[in-house]
Amino acid sequence: MYFMNTGRSISVEVGMNVRAELARSGQTIAAAATALNMSAPAFRRRLKGQVPFNVAELKEIQRITGTPFSDLVKVTEKAIAV
């Protein structure tokens, strides 16, 4: 039997949250990548959910955007079930 999962993963939803908060705060992807000491392509992989953010990275994003940590990691129940 084949089941197709159409829900987003936690990594994808966290990436979407980070992208939105960067935009709200006026931060560029390049500036955020620099703050995290990583290349822009590596940061984009995290934004797309291809690579999960780690806690230290999210704490730095929290610092540069002024966004509560809980807002960065807020995900839907569907993502948790994936």
UniProtKB/TrEMBL annotation:
A Pfam family per the record: BetR
Domain of life: Bacteria
InterPro entries noted in UniProt: Lambda_DNA-bd_dom_sf (IPR010982), Tscrpt_reg_BetR_N (IPR013975)
Residue span, Transcription regulator BetR N-terminal domain: 23-78
GO molecular function, one term: DNA binding
Signal peptide: none
Name of this protein: Transcription regulator BetR N-terminal domain-containing protein
